[in-house]
Structure formats: C-alpha cells, structure tokens
Amino acid sequence: MPADEPIQASIPSTEKPPAPRPIAEQPFDPMPPQGPDAAVDTNAKVASLEPFRDAPRGAVLTTDGGLPISNTDDSLKAGVRGPSLLEDHHFREKMTRFDHERIPERVVHARGSAAHGYFQVYEPLADLSRAVFLNDPSLRTPVFVRFSTVVGSRGSADTVRDVRGFATKFYTPEGNFDLVGNNIPVFFIQDGIKFPDVVHALKPEPANEIPQAQSAHDSFWDFVSLVPESAHMVMWVMSDRAIPRSYRMMEGFGVHTFRMINANNEAVLVKFHWRPLLGAHSLVWDEAQKLAGKDPDFHRRDLWNAIETGAAVEFELGVQVMSEKDELPFGFDLLDATKLVPEELVPVRRIGKMVLDRNPQNFFAETEQVAFHLGNLVPGIENTDDPLLQARLFSYIDTQLTRLGGPNFAEIPINQPLVEVVNHQQDGFHRDTIMTNTANYHPNSIGGGCPFLAGDAGFVHRQEKVHGQITRVRSESFRDHFSQATMFVASQSPVERRHMIEAFRFELGKVIRKPIRERMLGILREVDPDLAEQVALAIGVAVPTGPIQVPPGTSAPGARGDNGGVRVSAALSLENQPKTSIATRKVAVLVANGFDGAAAAAVKAALTAGGAIVEIIAPVLGVIGAAKGAAVEADKTFKTGASVFYDGIFVPGGESSCAALAGNGDAVHWIQEAYKHHKTIGASGEAIDVLVLAELGDAMLAGDEGAEDIVIDKGVVTGRGKDAATLAESFARALATHRHWDRDCDAIPA
Ligand code: HDE
Questions:
Q1: Is the pLDDT of residue 94 over 70?
Q2: Does 200 participate in catalysis according to the annotation?
Q3: What is the pLDDT confidence band of residue 326, given thresholds at 50, 70 and 90?
Q4: How far apart are the CA of 701 and the centre of ligand 1, in A?
Q5: Which among 78, 170, 234, 750 is least buried, having the fewest CB atoms inside 10 angstroms?
Q6: For the segment 157-202, what is each residue's pLDDT rounded down to a tens digit?
Q7: Which among 515, 541, 558 is the end of a domain?
Q8: Total number of domains constituting the chain
Q9: Are residues 272 and 144 in the same domain?
Q10: Is residue 708 very low, low, confident or very high in pLDDT (cuts 50, 70, 90)?
Q11: Which of 102-116, 184-198, 324-338, 598-612 has the lowest mean pLDDT?
C-alpha cells in the first residue's frame, strides 16, 4: 500500500449479513443466501464459511491432484488374482489420507458439541466497557459456542458426572473475544501449575485407561483428599449441577475475575454468568447412568435437534460488577478461582442475550477444529492476575500446536475473525495465506510502512501496578478453603443435599484404598460434619478425628473467613430455578392398538401448544389403531426407546390398549422407571389400572370408573372422567415443574 493512501476501515459490518438457510433442507447448497430475507441474517460467521463449503454433486471423482478416477473398487494388481502394485497411485493416496484422518483429541474437554448463533447487548455498557460489541444494541455479534465434558475421550458418553465446558467465541467488529467458561463457577485448584496434576488424577489411570469419563476411582479422590483447596469445587461436582438435563439448561460461568475498562480508562472487576432462559435443570443419577448406555449422545442429540426444529437456544449474559479499589472486598480474594461472589453481595446484572440457531455442517471442520484462547480479548475487556487464568494464557495456544498441527490454526476458517488479519507472521505448517508484501517486518519503509499501528484505537493493556518480590508462594488471602464449600452445601435443598450424600457414597464407595476414603471424610468433616457422617454410614470407614494433614508444599487451610457474611445463597440451589415452561420437554405417550385417541390428541394439543415434544411409543412400529379418534404412527417401540429419553409419560385409556400394556413388562417398566426418576406421569380412563399394576409407591390415583375428578398427586395426574382437555392441561402444568421430589420411590424396582 502506498504510504500516502488512507488506511481503510477493514471491519466488515455484522449488522446486515445474509439470511440463514435451513440447514436440514439444503445441507449441501454452496450458494450464498439470496432474496428478500438476505437482510435479516445475523450470522455473518456462518456466511463467512461459505467459500470453504464443498459438496460437489454430479461431478467426476478425482484424485487430490484432480485426475479423474475410473475405478475406486479394485486395486491395481499384477493379474486378476495377483499382488497389488505400488504404482497404484489412487490406492496409495486413498489409503494414506484415510490412515491420517485423526488428529489428537483435546487433552481435556475432548467430547463436545457446538452451535452457531449471535449475541446482542440489551443497552450500551459505556459505563463498564468500551468494547464495541457491548455498546451497540443494534449489533448482532456472531458467536460459535462449544459445550463439552471434561474428562472423557471424544467418543465418551454425554451424561457422566462431570463439569461441562461452555466456551464462546464472539466474532466482534474488533476481533475475536473468547469467553472460555464452565457450568460450575469455581475450579479445583488455585494455581495453574497444578492443572496437569488434577487432570492426571481425574483421567483414567495410566496402567489400564480405566475408568472412562468418571471421577469414581482412587487417583481422583487421592488427589482431592490431599488438596483441600479443591473442596468447594468437589461439592459442586457431587451436586446435581454435574449431571445437567441438557446443554440448553445449564448455567455458564467465566470462573475467573475479569476486568472491564471504559472509554475514560476506568476499570471495574467482573464475573461473567450465562443464564439459560429455560432455567437450569438436572438429571437423576440413575437416569444419567442409564442414558450413558442407551444414548451416549443424549446432550449432543438434544442440542442438535432443538436447533434443527427451530427451538431457540437462548442464554442471557450477566455480569457481577465490583470496584477494583478494594483488593479483598468480601474477605476473600477475587483472584482466587476457588471462590465465587455470592449474589447476595453483588447481584448479577443481565446485559444481553445469546441465541444459538444454526448447527455446524461439518463436525470436524467446525466443532473439532475450533480453538479457544483467553488471549483473544477486545479493547475494554482484560484478564486479571488470577494465577489460574495466567496459566491458561499459555496453555490454550500451546496445546493447539500439537492438536491442530502447527502455529497456523488461526487460519482455519472457524477460527478466523470477521475482521481482516494483517501482520508479519509467516510460514510454518499449514500456512494458507500468500504474503505478497516484501516488507515482512516492522518498521519498514519499502512496504510504505504497512501495516500501520492502531495506536490508542488498538488493544492497549491498562497500566496496572505490580509490586512484590519474585516468589513461589501461595498468597495468604487464598487460604480459606472451606467457608464457601460450607455455604454451597448449606444452600442446597434437602433433596439436593440427599443427592450429594448419595453421590459421595457412590464415588467414595468405588475407591478401593480405605485410607483415601477416610482422608476424604476428614475434608468433608471440615465442610459439613453432618454430611461427612451421612457419607461415612455407607462407605465402611469412620470420619477421622484430629486436624487434616496436607503434604509439604500443598496449600494448607488457613482460618475460615465469613464469606462476606453470606451463609446461604439462594442462587446456588437448582430448586430456585425457573419452572414455568414446558418448551422442548419431551413426553412419551404409551399406546397399543385400541387406545383412546381423543385423550392422546388432547394431551398432544396441550403439550405442543406449550412447545413440548410428543412421541408415540408402542410395542411395534407402524400405524396404531385407536378405539376412538385418529390412529397414530409410532415413533419408537418399548425396545428402541427408553423412559430415560423423556421428561414425562402419558398413558391414554382404551380397553384393549391398556390390557396389552398391562401385559407388557417393558411398558410397565417404563412407567415405574419414569416414576422412580421423579418425572410427570399421566393416565386417563383404563390406563389408571396400568399405573395401579405398576405399584407407584405412595401416589394417589383417580378413583372409580365414571368419577369426574382429576387427581394430581406427587406429579401423577390421573382422571377417569370425560374431560380430556382439563386432564391434559393439568398434565402440562405438572410437567413444567421438571421433577417431583416429594415421592417416596425407594421401593420401586426400576
Ligand atoms: Fe481449560 N483447557 N484449562 N479450563 N478449558 C482446555 O485447551 C487449561 C480451565 C475450558 O471447547 C485446553 O483447546 C489449564 C478453567 C474449556 O475447545 C487446554 C487450566 C476453565 C475448554 C486447557 C484450565 C476451563 C478447555 C484443552 C488451568 C473454566 C474447552 C484443549 C490453569 C473457566 C474449549 C484446548 C473447547 C480446554 C488448559 C482451567 C474451561 C489444555 C492449563 C478454570 C471450556 O489448553
């Protein structure tokens, strides 16, 4: 570029990108969207991938070099029954490419699913940050979000007990901003140098690579029982938060404290929160385990299907804003990632909404190759000195060198920002850009001085005072390891607390070495003595007495703080999540020939009106005849489906249908299992007798034939009368409460 030419603003507008195409309908159309709708597309990133999409139809098969291929079924041989020949270039190329299809999976978060969408701020945040995407409510910033589990390999099951990753790449007009969070607001360790240790302990043991995607083994509990700073996060992982119902129904957290800087160069500290509009909800542990076998893709399928069917996947972004003047405003250190800021101290300010509305078209190209990095910041958002965060700044770049095969991973289409990239980086494996500028250094004169520096318009680190001597010592302000763990346990509802006790019993019950079990009870005793006693009852060791010991070098617990005076925080219990919507909840309607079609239709109408999904389950696929009303086509059978795929079950009456279901052990098992998993159950007419047969514990059912009353007890909704519509509406209302914990179902054999 000549020196006297003005610098062009190179930021493409994200305001009026082309219209979205329904992927399911046109998965292989490489043409950019056209027509009047083009103006409403907000997903400029999806559009930017267009030139890379390739789905040749009707074209001739070629080698990578473009040579037309006439036969790809028989290798070149010396004689029809003779040996294959090395000169068969096509065979060698085909096999070589196949042999090298795999890249290393992520060392953590290997199993993931992603979606495209956009983020829009509600109102300008000029008081907090000068980031452009946080100041223009008309701007829809494209995002790509990858949800993940942490421990398991790429092919592991979705519903294991684990932390979930929640990583968002914002393709902003000032470059990429990556918010790489989890669904749990704190972390196991305080300093990133311990990350390899905690991950080694958590991953399968090295001798036999057992167990897959589980923390229930000796090495994990060995580690956390020796590292008391992990106590708070361990409580979260043993809670229902670690078995979410859906990626669409879990919260996300930035975990670390970040800094926002406004145009006046004033800074505040912030914690980021993602809030699902559907509320956060969890599975039941027995259900999660069964799902891991019956549908290992449960969360992946759920996210994919929701987007394919047009159900919006929506999260609000919130921030807790704190002054940076006071280093320890609440008695604990905001740079310590094992601490959260109770919402009683600093409420969450909701600043914008993210909508995920496009599935990726190629898992490898997009979901697998996306690379997040905490150094991807925009002016107005900065990192802090949190020692866990600092380590991540190195690791996320470093890990891609092996995983994505070299330093040019930012050129992979999904990782490219929507703004122009101009710098003097060059060469290396997998370099695509053809640099035509002779001056590949700065400063230069022969290239007209290009590229120029952005000056104050660029990313300028805010000047922060750093003081202190070089040291390898943990800050004293990090040593309150238990008060927030205690607050978390105290904030759980009685049912959630029971689930935690059961989780600890399960996990520690699988630990072979008794001293580890015992040592862990010592940690639990520090968190909540009653919890420790309850766990001890089932794991064959007693709660130890005496102070807990930590190995030399490990951060020993210091004095307990008062956690800013907060002992119980309502935001920490899932019981306080919104429970008003049935949108995208799945209900199975169990039928056999001769079912009451009118009752089934009423339920379907009530549920679909609220956005729920209804599937018909029958002994066989095909058309199932109704005694009255319309016949239906079965979606699944009792064998190809499972009660754990659904949030509720409805059984319509009909004499012959109910007789068939009563005699079908699988159908009865579906009902019992759904009841045991605290799901909404409904039945009309003769189907109530099927529930009686299933012996649903202490739930009351509607009375004799002809009675008009609808009985709703512990999430079981029954009615023998004729008012199918009222029954259906009662069932839909019960479904919205998610799960019915007031059941006594220990005796149910499912
Ligand atoms: Fe990560 N983490 N992490 N992590 N992390 C990775 O980066 C690491 C931490 C998180 O969908 C890796 O690209 C260190 C906290 C998510 O692609 C790796 C430390 C939080 C993802 C890495 C942490 C996270 C990763 C593996 C301690 C929540 C998946 C592949 C200092 C705030 C991103 C990769 C995706 C992935 C390192 C701690 C979240 C190895 C060293 C805390 C969501 O670089």
A1: yes
A2: no
A3: confident
A4: 50
A5: 78
A6: 999 999 999 999 999 999 999 999 999 999 999 999 999 999 999 9
A7: 558
A8: 4
A9: yes
A10: low
A11: 324-338
Distance CA 190, CA 309 (A): 42
CA distance readout (Å), 477 to 446, 464, 560? 54, 20, 11
Q: Is the pLDDT of residue 18 over 50?
A: no
CATH of the domain at 529: 1.20.1370.20
Residues 539 and 656 in one domain: no
**CB of 573 closer than 6 A to ligand 1?**
no
392 Cα–ligand 1 center, Å: 7
Same-domain check for residues 670 and 597: yes
Question: Does the beta carbon of 388 sit less than 6 angstroms from any atom of ligand 1?
Answer: yes
Identify whether residues 290 and 255 lie together within a single domain. Answer: yes
Residue 221 and residue 165 share a domain: yes
- Please check whether residues 636 and 512 belong to one and the same domain: no
Helix (H, G, I), strand (E, B) or coil at 496: helix
Q: Nearest residue CA, atom 19 of ligand 1?
A: 392
Write down the residue that tokens 């107005």 correspond to: 380
- CA–CA gap between residue 612 and residue 604 (Å, rounded): 9
Spacing, Cα 182 to ligand 1 middle (Å): 9
- The predicted-structure confidence for 378-432, as pLDDT tens digits, reads as follows 999 999 999 999 999 999 999 999 999 999 999 999 999 999 999 999 999 999 9
pLDDT at position 111: 98
Written as one letter, the residue type at 308 is E
- Is residue 192 in contact with ligand 1, taking CB distance under 6 Å? yes
Task: Give domain status of residue 405, yes or no.
Answer: yes
Q: How confident is the model at residue 702 (pLDDT cuts 50, 70, 90)?
A: confident
Say if ligand 1 is within 6 A of residue 90 CB: no
Q: Which atom of ligand 1 is nearest to the CA of 147?
A: 11
Residue 187 alpha carbon, nearest atom of ligand 1: 42
Would you state the torsion angle of the CA atoms of residues 319, 322, 323, 327, taken in this order, to the nearest 10 degrees?
-130
Ligand 1 nearest-atom number relative to CA 106: 30
Residues 441, 411, single domain; the answer is: no
Q: And the tokens for 706?
A: 């002809």
Evaluate: CB of 148 within 6 angstroms of ligand 1: yes
Q: Which residue, judged by its Cα, is nearest atom 20 of ligand 1?
A: 181
Q: Is the CB of 372 under 6 A from ligand 1?
A: yes
3 state DSSP class of 524: helix
Domain extent for 706: 586-736
Assess contact for 616 and 633: CB atoms under 8 A: yes
Would you say residue 304 lies in a domain?
yes
Given 182, 359, 376, 563, which residue is catalytic? 182
> Which atom of ligand 1 lies nearest, measured to the CA of 373?
13
φ, ψ at 713 (rounded to 5°): -140, 120
The number of the ligand 1 atom at minimal distance from the alpha carbon of 256 is 32
DSSP letter assigned to residue 365 = I
CATH number for 386: 2.40.180.10
Q: Indicate the residue among 386, 415, 444 that finishes a domain.
A: 415
Report the distance separating Cα 497 and Cα 486, nearest Å: 12
Max CA distance (Å), the chain: 95
The reply to whether ligand 1 has any atom less than 6 angstroms from the CB of 109 is yes
- Is 373 one of the catalytic residues? no
CATH number at residue 716: 3.40.50.880
Q: Quote the strand ranges of 7-128, DSSP E.
A: 112-121
Give the pLDDT confidence of 626-679 residue by residue, as tens digits.
Answer: 998 899 999 999 999 999 999 999 999 999 999 999 999 999 999 999 999 999
Q: Which of 109, 281, 677, 738 is catalytic?
A: 109
Counting Cα atoms < 13 Å in the Cβ hemisphere of 415 gives 18
| Top-ranked range on mean pLDDT: pick from 41-50, 318-327, 471-480, 716-725 | 471-480
Is 138 domain-assigned?
yes
**Residues 448, 552: one domain?**
no
Residue 156 domain-assigned?
A: yes
